[in-house]
Design goal:
Helices cover 27% and strands 24% of the residues. It is of the alpha/beta class. Helix 8 links the parallel strand 6 and strand 7.
Length: 523
């Protein structure tokens, strides 16, 4: 699995650390004489209300926007309608197969007391085996981490258990002191150390023979509605039922375990779960093109975000990013073709939460063929591609902190990071155009961080960057602790920041379209 897919799950922790300790960006280079698209074509820029309507249009769809699910398909149609309305060319969905996991039936009780719990995303997925019951192996003979069997999996199936003795294991270090016999056949309760990486505690429990897992969100706010990306591609499938509980409910469980132990007994859990896992072909990126001037070189600037979400509204994650792409499609569609020095490829991906399969297919269709797995980056011009650069936008959000397991909104717009390929002309433009995103009107600041060809980035742009195709990127992103939670609702989106960010992006695209091709080469 490539580095992007491993690092991508650590998105928030990496970004928050970066924001706190600085991004190491160079000083801003002013370009006072640069032509601004927002000045030349100011009347074409969508107003805040229209930009917010894109967020509402996606957030208010029925069901989650999971890849291949009814809500995801509805999102595809919504986006295609907008692209067609604005006159984009070659509007279509790039068909993509991906995993679709759903779970609407689960419960957990301890010592007869019902516990408020939430199913762990992608758990009880029996993907470790081939259809003939053999362990899947890769070309090196090692057990494959890819999923192999699809269908309905339930604790009620013959041979599975629904009742088990509870065992509290504080953390990963405590697991290391146990023997498998201490864990086998039991339901393990443990604290989740990191919300933004693979749940090692779950894997330890599973590998030692546990029949179920309860993860205490001890560092989270008072919610168990946690819906992270699919992390199973890191260390393999989640094969046993998994549940999230809040710190408060975790304390209740630990107290029940202690009370039983003090009475000379073992605490028992009753748990049930049924999941459906399928390989769907209904996923896919929505793409559309605005061609450039017929007198131009035929090259394009790509702009992308992702529309899928595992929460009911997915407002900041990532209807907000979609709103920027749709705004730019509307804005640039009104500019005469002869005034657009180059074309723009608009891409709204899904499968952000199911192994980035659509991203791979976008790259295959538009970036010159099969993904390139090699140490050296592919410098523009060495591949047969019309795309000179990618601009990726994710998460425009209100800032929040977690204090004493409570979510506290600060009243500020979340600070953003702009990862920029170390091509001097690109860097100067991005620094110049994001310098206007300051806090005078509380629209959020942007820190620019240069990335070289040996650097990975933890964003949706990384596959198009060095780890895959070597397309120089600008990746604008922020991260908040609620972005995987059901509370990622429309109220979390700062409307006051929408138009300023859109204007900044419009000017970056406009100025990129006028650069020489050599200006996109990076160090």
């Amino acid at each position: 699995m490539n580095l992007k897919k491993i690092l991508g799950i650590g998105l928030s922790s990496v970004l928050i650390t970066t924001m706190l300790f600085g991004c190491g960006a160079s000083g801003t280079n002013e370009s006072e004489n640069a032509e601004k698209a927002t000045e030349k074509y100011a009347e074409y820029m969508p107003e805040t209300e229209e930009i917010f309507s894109y967020v509402e249009g996606l957030a208010n769809l029925d069901g989650t926007r999971q890849s291949g699910a009814p809500g995801g398909i509805a999102a595809q149609n919504y986006i295609m309608d907008r692209f067609n309305e604005y006159g984009l060319e070659d509007v279509h969905v790039i068909p993509t197969e991906t995993d679709l996991w759903t779970c609407d039936d689960w419960s957990l009780s301890v010592q007869g007391q019902e516990i408020d719990s939430y199913r762990m995303y992608m758990s009880l997925f029996d993907g470790k085996y081939t259809e003939d019951g053999e362990l899947k192996k890769d070309v090196d003979g090692k057990v494959s981490k890819d999923k192999g069997v699809y269908g309905t999996f339930s604790t009620s199936d013959e041979g599975n258990v629904e009742d088990a003795e509870l065992l509290y294991v504080k953390n990963v270090n405590a697991f290391k002191k146990l023997n498998p016999d201490d864990v086998k056949g039991k339901m393990v309760v443990s604290n989740i150390a990191s919300l933004y990486s693979e749940p090692l505690e779950y894997y330890y429990a599973q590998s030692m023979g546990a029949v179920g897992f309860v993860g205490i969100l001890s560092e989270y706010f008072d919610s168990n509605k946690y819906n992270p990306e699919d992390m199973s591609y890191v260390n393999g499938s989640f094969e046993i039922p998994g549940y999230y509980v809040t710190k408060k409910d975790g304390d209740t469980i630990k107290s029940l375990i202690k009370d039983a132990k003090d009475s000379g007994e073992a605490a028992d859990a009753h748990f049930e779960m049924t999941v459906d896992a399928e390989r769907t072909d209904k996923a896919g990126a929505v793409v559309g093109i605005l061609p450039g001037s017929e007198d131009g070189d035929g090259k394009m600037i790509m702009m992308n975000s992702h529309y899928d979400a595992t929460t009911p509204e997915g407002a900041t994650q990532d209807a907000s990013g979609c709103s920027m792409v749709l705004s730019m499609a509307k804005f640039y569609s009104q500019i005469p073709q002869e005034d657009r020095a180059r074309g723009i490829l608009f891409v709204l991906n899904d499968t952000h939460s199911s192994d980035y399969d659509a991203h791979d297919n976008v790259a295959k269709e538009y970036l010159g063929g099969e993904w390139v797995d090699e140490e050296a980056c592919v410098i523009p011009g060495l591949k047969d591609t019309d795309v000179l650069a990618d601009i990726c936008v994710e998460h425009i959000s209100e800032e929040a902190t977690i204090e004493n397991n409570e979510l506290v909104m600060t009243g500020n717009v979340s600070q953003r990071v702009a990862y920029v390929a170390n091509a001097p002309a690109m860097v100067e433009i991005v620094e110049d155009e994001t310098a206007n995103l300051q806090d005078e009107e509380n629209t959020g600041t942007t820190e620019v961080q240069l990335i070289g060809k040996d650097d990975a980035i933890v964003t949706d742009a990384d596959l198009f960057w060095c780890d895959g195709y070597g397309i120089p990127v600008v990746s604008l992103i922020s991260a908040q602790p609620y972005m995987y939670d059901d509370c990622d609702t429309l109220e979390k989106l700062p409307q006051r920041a929408l138009k300023p960010v859109a204007e900044s992006l419009a000017n970056i695209i406009w100025r990129f379209m006028s650069l020489d091709e050599a200006d996109f080469e990076y160090e």
